UniProtKB/TrEMBL annotation:
Entry's Gene Ontology molecular function annotations: copper ion binding; oxidoreductase activity
Gene: cueO
Enzymatic class: oxidoreductase
Organism: Methyloglobulus morosus KoM1
Assembly mode: Monomer.
Residue ranges of domain Plastocyanin-like in the record: 13-127, 412-499
Entry protein name: Multicopper oxidase CueO
EC number: 1.16.3.4
Keywords: Metal-binding, Oxidoreductase, Signal
Record InterPro entries: Cu-oxidase-like_N, Cu-oxidase_C, Cu-oxidase_fam, Cu_oxidase_CS, Cu_oxidase_Cu_BS, Cupredoxin, TAT_signal
Reactions listed under catalytic activity: 4 Cu(+) + O2 + 4 H(+) = 4 Cu(2+) + 2 H2O
Length: 499
C-alpha cells in the first residue's frame, strides 16, 4: 500500500522528460511503478542527443555523473534553464561499459531536486563487456538505494535545517528502485545486481545477512580486472557497485536479505543520536534491511563467474606537469560550513578556480584536516530542539539533552565525505589514516574497493586518499564536490578550469 501511495502521488519526476531522439528503441526503460527516472541505455561510441524539458517551476540542469562529456553538456549550474525551457545535450559516449547516473545540478538546489525524484540510472554497454556473457535482461537488476523521510500519512518530507545541512538529511525508510521493503523474486541462478547509492547523504555498509561474501564485479567506472570477494562493501552517495549474486544452490522458498551493517566514524559521535531528532530516525551506521531476495523458481543452468573481467591499464603520472607533486584537495569543516581547499564554492567567480592544463594526468591528494582544538564545526546559535543524544562527544559540562540556541561547542566533530570529481574516472593510488582514527576506520575499510575506475571516493575523518586522474579531451569547467548533496548545496564544491 505504501508503495502505491508513493507511486500514485504526482511526483516531480513525472513532469520531467529525458527523451532520446537517436538510438535503439529500448534505449529508455521505465522502472515499473517507480518515481525514478527511466533507465537510459547507451552504447560506447554512440552519439546521443537528449532534450531536457524543464516542466518544474524552478531552474534545473541535468548532469551525467560518471560520463566523460564536454564541459558545455556536463550540467554545470551556470547552464541551468528556467521553467518551460529546453536544453539540448549532444555528446558521444566515450566511457567503457559502466553504470552512470543522471541527476540535476542547479546552484544550491541539487539535494532538494534529487530528493524529490529527479534521478535515474544510465547503463553504458560495450562489446568487450558483452563478450563476457554476464547476466542480462531480467537477470541484470538495478538496485537504486535511497532513504526518504515519510510522515504519518506516508507523505514525503524534505525539510532541511541547519542540522541537516551540516550532517546530511536522512530518511526513516529505505527505498530500493522506489519501493520500501523491496522483495525480489529470483531463480536458482546467477544475477548481476547494479547498485547505485542515490541517497542525498546516507552511507551504507552492504552485506548478505547469512555471511555470504559480496562478489564485486565492478565499481563506478565499470568492471574490475577480476571479481573481488568482500565481507561487506561500503556504498556512499554517488557510488555504483556491480555485484554477482549467485542463488544457484539456494532452496526454493528461502530468503536472503541484503542489510546495511553497523559501522562508526562517518558522523561525529553525537550525530548518531541526533538522527533520532525527527522522532523516527534510522540512525546512520545502525543495522537495517535494504531488500530481500526470495527464491521462487528452480532453473537448471546458470552462467559461471568469469575469472578475468577486464584489462585496466594503470595511469602514468604526467612527468611534465605534475612531477611528484600532488594537486591538493583539502576538506575542512568550519563554522556552519563545509569547505574544499579552504573556500566555499565560488559560483561565477572566474578568478577563483583550480587550474589544470588540458591533456595531462594528475596525481591528486584528497586530505581531511583534523580539528586542531580551535573549535571545529562550532555550533553556537544552532537553535534546534528535539533531544539529541550526545553520546561520547566531549562537550565541557554538557550532558545529554536538547541543544538549545547559542551554545558554543569546541572539540573535533569531523565527519566522512564522499568526494566526487566530474570528468574522467580516476584510480586510487593509496589511502592512509591518522592513527587516532584507526578504530572507527576498522569498521569500514574492508568494504572499500580500491581497484578499478572511480569517480567518487569516501574520505573518512583523518584520512588521506591519493588518486590519479586524467584531464583529457575537453577544456572548460569541471566540478568536484562532496556528494553528500546537502554539503554540495552548502558550497562544498569547487571547479577545475581545464585549459
Ligand atoms: Cu553526481 Cu556533480 O555530481
Ligand atoms: Cu558527476
Ligand atoms: Cu561532505
Amino acid at each position: 500500500a505504501e508503495a502505491q501511495i508513493l507511486v500514485g502521488r504526482k511526483t516531480r519526476v513525472q513532469q520531467y522528460t529525458a527523451k532520446l531522439l537517436h538510438g535503439p528503441e529500448h534505449t529508455v526503460t521505465e522502472i515499473p511503478g517507480s518515481y525514478l527516472g527511466p533507465i537510459i541505455r547507451l552504447q560506447k561510441g554512440q552519439k546521443v542527443r537528449i532534450n531536457l524539458h524543464n516542466r518544474l517551476d524552478e531552474d534545473t540542469i541535468t548532469h551525467w555523473h560518471g560520463l566523460h562529456v564536454p564541459a558545455e553538456v556536463d550540467g554545470h549550474p551556470m547552464y541551468a534553464i528556467g521553467s518551460g525551457q529546453t536544453f539540448v545535450y549532444e555528446f558521444e559516449v566515450a566511457n567503457r561499459a559502466c553504470m552512470a547516473i543522471y541527476h540535476p545540478h542547479p546552484h544550491e538546489a541539487t539535494a532538494k531536486q534529487v530528493y524529490q525524484g529527479l534521478a535515474g540510472a544510465i547503463i553504458v554497454n560495450d562489446e568487450i563487456e558483452a563478450a563476457l556473457g554476464l547476466p542480462t535482461g531480467e537477470f541484470e537488476i538495478p538496485i537504486v538505494i535511497q532513504d526518504r523521510l515519510f510522515d504519518g500519512q506516508n507523505q514525503l518530507i524534505y525539510a532541511p535545517n541547519m542540522h541537516s545541512n551540516m550532517f546530511g538529511f536522512y530518511g526513516n525508510r529505505i527505498l530500493v528502485n522506489g519501493h520500501p521493503e523491496l522483495q525480489l523474486d529470483v531463480a536458482t541462478r546467477a544475477y548481476r545486481l547494479r547498485f547505485l547509492n542515490g541517497s542525498t547523504a546516507r552511507i551504507y555498509k552492504l552485506a548478505w545477512d547469512d555471511g555470504t561474501p559480496m562478489t564485486v564485479l565492478g565499481v563506478d567506472g565499470g568492471l574490475l580486472e577480476q571479481p573481488e570477494h568482500k565481507p561487506y562493501v561500503m556504498l556512499v552517495p554517488g557510488e555504483r557497485l556491480d555485484v554477482w549474486a549467485d542463488f544457484s544452490n539456494r532452496t526454493l522458498g528461502s530468503e536472503l536479505v541484503m542489510r546495511s551493517l553497523p559501522f562508526s566514524g562517518v558522523l561525529p559521535h553525537m550525530g548518531m543520536g541526533m538522527m533520532g531528532h525527527h522522532g523516527f530516525g534510522l540512525p546512520v551506521g545502525s543495522d537495517y534491511a535494504i531488500f530481500t531476495a526470495r527464491i521462487t523458481k528452480k532453473v537448471s543452468d546458470s552462467p559461471k563467474l568469469p575469472i578475468q573481467l577486464a584489462k585496466i591499464s594503470r595511469y602514468g603520472i604526467d612527468e611534465t606537469h605534475n612531477p611528484n607533486k600532488a594537486v591538493p584537495i583539502t576538506i575542512s569543516e568550519g563554522h556552519m560550513a563545509m569547505l574544499l581547499n579552504g573556500r566555499p564554492y565560488a559560483y561565477k567567480d572566474i578568478q577563483d578556480r583550480e587550474r589544470i592544463p588540458l591533456n595531462t594526468i594528475q596525481l591528486m591528494e584528497i586530505s581531511h584536516e583534523q580539528g586542531s582544538g580551535h573549535g571545529m564545526m562550532g555550533m553556537g546559535g544552532m537553535g534546534e530542539g528535539g533531544g539529541m543524544g550526545m553520546g561520547r562527544m566531549g562537550m565541557g559540562g554538557m550532558q545529554h539533552g536538547g541543544m538549545g540556541g547559542g551554545m558554543g561547542m569546541g572539540g573535533m566533530m569531523a565527519m566522512a565525505h564522499p568526494i566526487h570529481l566530474h570528468g574522467q574516472s580516476f584510480q586510487i593510488v593509496s589511502r592512509s589514516i591518522d592513527s587516532s582514527r584507526e578504530s572507527d576506520y576498522a569498521t569500514v575499510n574492508q568494504g572499500f574497493i580500491n581497484s578499478g575506475l572511480k569517480d567518487t571516493v569516501l574520505v573518512m575523518p583523518g584520512e588521506t586518499v591519493r588518486i590519479i586522474k586524467p584531464f583529457q579531451d575537453f577544456k572548460g569547467l569541471f566540478m568536484f564536490h562532496c556528494h553528500n548533496l546537502e554539503h554540495e548545496d552548502m558550497g562544498m564544491m569547487r571547479e577545475f578550469l581545464v585549459e
